[in-house]
């Protein structure tokens, strides 16, 4: 009797069992594919942020050199904003993507860069190209 | 109630175009209007009627969205969809563009002068608010670029007596900013509206801020300083703002503008249902939970959306309004007794 029940049980529950097994298989495959995709996305995104900030830093270092030795009051204001930007960039925690103020600090850096450009009277016109050889923000 | 707000005159200020905004000069003698026709017009009174004294049409390549007079009345700023803000200097009836402020990435939505006259704020669809400083030689310098909002910033306004700036955005919030150690920071975010906040107005004392929204409500926010008697929590030495009143159920469409009369305390609104409404605080209402009553309602004030309402700063009860239909209208507000 017990044997009969098991046999029917196996047949009746087969559908559900296959669903379950399929789900687990799919879930595992999805998870590992997801991790690969996530890693790729993270790398790309991290590279974008890195290149944006790197660009601001290069820009700031170049201008610091250009303004070196200028002594007018207007120039000292520019230097102050320049140094503030460099300071923010150097304080940015590059190795902690879970830093809770990441976006806030990034926005502050972008704002400071815009202000600097306004004071220097330069138009930032970095453009992105599909291959990623340019930069666009 | 229908006699409380009476039409004085109507002018087709920006023909075949929208009239977007109006601003009275500090003396209350001139009204600046701006529109989709890319021009700014200055209106002055001649007897009982208003005439166009100047047209400033060479300044912008696209719609002029807002105009603002400097506290001294000698300068006018115009904010445009062409991403620039022009500063015009008044010389009798002539206006000369003395500077063009650039930097925003796209449409500038609003411009406002601080009461000190030394600071100017602009905001844009690029989600940022810029603070500019002007010196005695009319040189403008950007002192801060604030990226606090997450969407299009629609309006900026300065506190009447403190160096405190407020902004309203498509992200449903109002943000406040002040200067802290040589830089400007966002010191408060007011949440509560359920949709785009279109405009802001401080009350005469500066203790309260009115905001109007696409969610068809007007909210009144009150400032609470640290150590306040009402026990409202503040973080550190920062003031906090609490919503003390919500006017809902009065407007059937988006409210595009709100204006708080500095002389009488009356609150006027400009609505997408073509109507103008005026509210007054009920006498004796609790300052921590004020109540406002509708004292005037003109249903067909204009034939299209009303974009702006502006109280004359010197003449009690004189209200100007403008609309998508290109018209500018003048109203006399006289609340009847016993409301």
- CATH class of chain B, named Mainly Beta
- Give the overall average pLDDT of chain A: 86
What kind of assembly state do the chains in view correspond to? heterodimer
Number of helices of chain B: 0
Family (chain A): Belongs to the LTO1 family.
Protein name (chain A): LTO1 maturation factor of ABCE1
InterPro entries (chain A): Essential_protein_Yae1_N (IPR019191), LTO1_adapter (IPR052436)
Pfam family, one (chain A): Yae1_N
List the helices and strands and how they pair.
The complex is a heterodimer of chains A (137) and B (339).
Chain A: H1 2-12, H2 14-67, H3 73-91, H4 102-120
Helix pairs in contact in A: 2-3, 3-4
Chain B: E1 5-12, E2 19-24, E3 30-35, E4 40-46, E5 49-56, E6 64-69, E7 75-80, E8 85-91, E9 94-101, E10 108-113, E11 119-124, E12 129-134, E13 140-146, E14 153-158, E15 164-169, E16 174-180, E17 183-190, E18 197-202, E19 208-213, E20 218-224, E21 240-247, E22 255-260, E23 267-271, E24 276-281, E25 292-298, E26 306-311, E27 318-323, E28 327-333
Antiparallel strand pairs in B: 1-28, 2-3, 3-4, 4-5, 6-7, 7-8, 8-9, 10-11, 11-12, 12-13, 14-15, 15-16, 16-17, 18-19, 19-20, 20-21, 22-23, 23-24, 24-25, 26-27, 27-28
Key words describing this protein structure:
heterodimer; A: 137 residues; mainly alpha; 4 helices; 75% helix; disordered C terminus; B: 339 residues; mainly beta; Methylamine Dehydrogenase, Chain H; four-stranded antiparallel sheet; 28 strands
Protein described:
Helices cover 75% and strands 0% of the residues of chain A. Chain A has 137 residues and is mainly alpha-helical. Chain A is built from 4 helices and no strands. The mean pLDDT of chain B is 95. Chain B is an all-beta fold and 339 residues long. The relative contact order of chain B is 0.14. Chain B has one domain: Methylamine Dehydrogenase, Chain H, CATH 2.130.10. A 4-stranded antiparallel beta sheet of chain B has the order 1-28-27-26, with no helix packed on it. In chain B, strands 2-3-4-5 form a 4-stranded antiparallel beta sheet, with no helix packed on it. The interface between A and B is medium-sized, with 13 and 13 residues.
């Amino acid at each position: 009797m017990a044997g009969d029940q098991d046999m029917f049980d196996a047949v009746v529950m087969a559908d559900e069992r296959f669903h379950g097994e399929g789900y687990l298989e799919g879930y595992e495959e999805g998870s590992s594919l997801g991790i690969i995709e996530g890693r790729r996305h993270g790398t790309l995104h991290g590279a974008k942020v890195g290149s944006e900030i790197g660009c601001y830093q290069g820009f700031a270092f170049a201008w610091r050199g250009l303004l070196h030795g200028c002594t007018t009051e207007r120039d000292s204001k520019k230097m102050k904003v320049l140094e503030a930007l460099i300071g923010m960039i150097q304080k940015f925690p590059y190795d902690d993507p879970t830093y809770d103020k990441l976006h806030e600090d990034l926005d502050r850096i972008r704002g400071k860069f815009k202000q600097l450009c306004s004071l220097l009277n330069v138009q930032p016109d970095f453009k992105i190209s599909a291959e990623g050889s340019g930069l666009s923000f | 109630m229908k006699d409380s707000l009476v039409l004085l005159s109507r002018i087709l200020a920006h023909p075949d175009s929208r009239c977007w905004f109006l601003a009275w000069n500090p003396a209350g003698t001139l009204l600046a209007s701006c529109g989709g026709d890319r021009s700014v017009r200055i209106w002055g009174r001649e007897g009982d009627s208003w005439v166009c004294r100047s047209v400033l049409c060479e300044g912008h390549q696209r719609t002029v969205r807002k105009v603002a007079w400097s506290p001294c009345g000698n300068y006018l700023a115009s904010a445009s969809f062409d991403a620039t803000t022009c500063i015009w200097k008044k010389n009798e009836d002539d206006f000369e563009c003395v500077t063009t402020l650039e930097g925003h990435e796209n449409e500038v939505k609003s411009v406002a002068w601080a009461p000190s006259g030394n600071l100017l704020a602009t905001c844009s669809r690029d989600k940022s608010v810029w603070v500019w400083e002007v010196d005695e030689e009319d040189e403008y310098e950007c002192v801060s670029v604030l990226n606090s909002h997450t969407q299009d910033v629609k309006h900026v306004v300065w506190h009447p007596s403190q160096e405190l700036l407020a902004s309203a955005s498509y992200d449903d919030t109002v943000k406040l900013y002040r200067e802290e150690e040589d830089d400007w920071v966002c010191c408060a975010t007011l949440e509560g509206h359920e949709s785009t906040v279109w405009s802001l107005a401080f009350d005469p004392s500066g203790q309260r801020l009115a905001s109007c929204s696409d969610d068809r409500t007007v909210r009144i926010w009150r400032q609470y300083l640290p150590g306040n008697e009402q026990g409202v929590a503040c973080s550190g030495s920062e003031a906090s703002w609490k919503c003390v009143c919500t006017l809902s159920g009065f407007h059937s469409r988006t409210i595009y503008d709100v204006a708080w009369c500095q002389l009488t305390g009356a609150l006027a609104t400009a609505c997408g249902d073509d109507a103008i409404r005026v509210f007054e605080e009920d006498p004796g209402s609790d300052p921590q939970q004020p109540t406002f009553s509708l004292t005037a309602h003109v249903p067909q004030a204009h034939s299209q959306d009303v974009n702006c309402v502006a109280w004359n700063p010197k003449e009690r009860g004189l209200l100007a309004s403008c609309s998508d239909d290109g018209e500018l209208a003048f109203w006399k507000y006289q609340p009847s007794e016993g409301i």
